[in-house]
Amino acid sequence: NAGVTQTPKFQVLKTGQSMTLQCAQDMNHNSMYWYRQDPGMGLRLIYYSASEGTTDKGEVPNGYNVSRLNKREFSLRLESAAPSQTSVYFCASSERAGGLRTDTQYFGPGTRLTVL
Amino acid sequence: LAKTTQPISMDSYEGQEVNITCSHNNIATNDYITWYQQFPSQGPRFIIQGYKTKVTNEVASLFIPADRKSSTLSLPRVSLSDTAVYYCPLGLTFGKGTHLIIQP
């Protein structure tokens, strides 16, 4: 099992450009998550999907959109990138649908994004 | 959003036992307490989880008092490779974690 995979590993964008961060898991998990991590800020939730076909906003959703393409894949889109979105982005998954307060999360290796 | 409080940083030495405490005053009845470890340039990884009392696995112990308003992660005989950031999230709120530095 590869677990949770993320592409790309690194990306540099100019202000105003758009891009999609890809995430896939092969553990047959129902819930998936997107976090960002900034120096000194810890992990902050952007969006999550408690089951296939549903998505919900987290703590910092502004400037992002998500798509739960199928059970395996959960993508994060930046429509018009801004320097404030420079960060490391982590995708995670957990086993049960709606097990947000109980289930262990499995994280991907992260995408390091720089917006100039 | 539920919030946890933990020390920003801690120092210790190889071979010592390290205890990191997390405060979670507004924990919900259905919340489990989970601890994660994160190394630089990697995603967090699961260490241990519990609901109440004590849980032990091959790498750590987790102590949870009866009121569940705090928890303590115990790492026995730490080594340099235990230098990392440790998180005790509630639900989907991770906070800033504790940066543990182990010295020789």
Verbal overview:
The complex is a heterodimer of chains A (116) and B (104). Chain A is mainly beta and 116 residues long. Chain A contains no helices and eleven strands. In chain A, a hairpin with a 6-residue loop joins strand 5 (42-49) and strand 6 (56-57). The radius of gyration of chain A is 13 Å and the shape is globular. The model of chain A has no long low-confidence stretch (mean pLDDT 94). Chain B has 104 residues and is mostly beta strands. Chain B contains no helices and nine strands. Chain B is globular and about 40 Å long. The model of chain B has no long low-confidence stretch (mean pLDDT 94).
- Beta-strand percentage range of chain B: over 45%
Number of helices of chain A: 0
- Based on CA atoms alone, the radius of gyration of chain A comes out at 13 Å
Overall outline of chain B: globular
Lateral strand order in the biggest sheet of chain B: 1-9-8-3-4
> What integer is the average pLDDT of chain A?
94
**Percent helix among the residues of chain A?**
under 10%
Question: How many angstroms does the end-to-end distance of chain A come to?
Answer: 36 Å
Profile the largest sheet of chain A.
Answer: 7 strands, mixed
Helix and strand arrangement:
The complex is a heterodimer of chains A (116) and B (104).
Chain A: E1 4-7, E2 10-13, E3 19-25, E4 31-38, E5 42-49, E6 56-57, E7 64-68, E8 74-78, E9 87-94, E10 106-107, E11 111-115
Parallel strand pairs in A: 2-11
Antiparallel strand pairs in A: 1-3, 3-8, 4-5, 4-9, 5-6, 7-8, 9-10, 9-11
Chain B: E1 9-13, E2 18-23, E3 33-38, E4 45-50, E5 53-56, E6 61-64, E7 70-75, E8 84-87, E9 98-103
In short:
Chain A has strands spanning 4-7, 10-13, 19-25, 31-38, 42-49, 56-57, 64-68, 74-78, 87-94, 106-107, 111-115. By secondary structure, chain A is an all-beta fold. In chain A, strand 7 and strand 8 form a beta hairpin.
